[in-house]
Write a structure and sequence with these properties.
Blueprint (H helix, E strand, L loop, with lengths): L4 H6 L14 H12 L10 E6 L4 H8 L9 E8 L1 H9 L9 H24 L3 E4 L7 H7 L6 E10 L13 H4 L10 H7 L1 H4 L2 H10 L4 H9 L2 H17 L7
Antiparallel strand pairs: 1-2, 2-4, 3-4
Helix pairs in contact: 2-5
Bound molecules: flavin mononucleotide.
């Protein structure tokens, strides 16, 4: 049974365990087509998606994601892609002016909109998925494994398949926390605390605080999940990879 878009979005939950059933070629093509209907910069579609299903490549790719979502029959690696457009420029005898920060960010917006459309279509069709942010931790190795040419940068990974679990509807900040009327409202400390109560008081998150032995929920992120030294080391690797990929982001 297909759900409508509003229902799908309000019920979204990440799925991390999958059945052995593969995603059919027709279904994959349909959700990718839905992705391509998203708005994009100048209708240049500065993204590509690489579908990895066959062994041993699927397992090697999963390994570069530290074994996350190992049961997923399908990994979708979504890349910013100025390479294809540059090739189009070349065959038309035009300049190739898109290997820079402006176009990396534009392509990242395109890739994100493509991915989200694809995700909504996938959920509407009964598939489940989980984003894997580890695509940013091993970007160069993933690009090498998937034979990405220069100018193609893996930025979003979706582990996808037929769900073997229901998943959990996780909490969200209220719309008043994310929406500002007319101009940005700089919140007071009290307002910051209040808007994050939904997260801090969530029993699942409180259990995580206990298990991690941190002072609060926030500290799980700043000391365990995404600590400063790790962020800086990964950022340095990403910059080096972008440079090798022919993308100038810092002069
Ligand atoms: C860019 C991005 C990276 C993510 N990386 C991971 C990941 O590496 N592993 C994981 O289990 N979940 C990952 N997630 C899933 C988030 O943890 C999840 O979306 C968030 O906790 C909200 O839960 P929900 O998707 O079930 O609503 C990622 C999500 C996004 C958008």
């Amino acid at each position: 049974m297909e759900m409508n878009a509003i229902e799908v979005m309000k019920n979204h939950r990440s799925i991390r365990r999958f059945t052995e059933e593969r995603v059919s070629k027709e279904l994959l093509e349909e959700i990718v087509e839905c992705g391509t209907r998203a708005s994009n910069t100048g209708n240049m579609q500065l993204y590509s998606v690489i579908a990895t299903e066959e062994e041993p490549l699927r397992s090697e790719l999963c390994g570069l994601h530290f074994g996350q979502c190992a049961s997923a029959p399908l990994f979708l690696t979504i890349c910013t892609d100025v390479y294809r457009y540059h090739r189009y420029c070349r065959v038309n005898g035009c300049d190739e002016p898109y290997g820079n920060l402006l176009w990396l960010l534009s392509a990242l917006v395109d890739a994100s909109l493509f991915a989200q459309n694809l995700c909504i279509a996938a959920e509407a069709k009964g598939l489940g998925f989980c984003h894997l942010g580890t695509v940013m931790y091993n970007t160069e190795k993933i690009a090498e494994l998937l034979k990405c040419p220069k100018g193609v940068v893996p930025v979003i990974t979706l582990a996808m398949g037929h769900p073997a679990e229901e998943g959990r509807l996780s909490e969200r900040l209220g719309t008043d926390a994310v929406m500002h009327s007319e101009v940005y409202h700089d919140p007071t400390d009290e307002e910051i605390v209040k808007m994050h109560e939904v997260r801090d008081n969530d029993p699942f998150n409180q259990q995580m605080v206990k298990e991690n032995g941190t002072r609060n929920y926030c500290e799980i992120f700043t000391t365990k999940r995404y600590p400063r030294e790790q962020n800086e080391a990964i950022s340095a690797d990403l910059l080096a990879f972008l440079r090798k990929s022919g993308i100038t982001v810092n002069g």
